[in-house]
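Continuing the batch. This is chain 6 of the set; chains 1 through 5 are on the previous pages. Same settings as before, nothing changed between runs. Recording input and output for traceability.
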Amino acid sequence: MTHSLLDDPLVQPATPARIARKNKLNALNGSTAFGLFVARLGGCRITQGPRGMWLADNYRYNFPVAGAFTIGSVAITRQEWPDILDNRSWLFHHEEWHSFQYAACGGLPFIPLYVAAMGWSMLLTGDFWSRNPFERRAGLAIGGYVEHHLRRPLRLVGRGRRSE
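Output for chain 6:
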């Protein structure tokens, strides 16, 4: 049985072959090149990181609003990657799972799909992450997110009505 790149990271671990395939796909689909362009535009220091990821830190813009974000196989942050890797390595792993998602989505199509998923989550919960399948598959907790419940009217609709 074969597994897709979007398999749950807790079920389908990142083997060296899977990591190499993901990085190659992101190079071929142009998403890593675009990530490096965004990092340069943001004034980042760019270094080769673990597991074939590019690490870009000291990003100067406040968009997107996130502790870190990934484009292709490039993880970008306003902070410094050596500090993150030493003290919060879970954040690197969360961002790396997003790089698998870029590969699975064919590269840059991930971006509009992710934006749509943010809207879906906002509609259901009032936040951009709790019901965003990309964030859920990358691990909400390791991304530093707290999961919120469905908004009350949606919980009531989901239960249906009991006959009396």
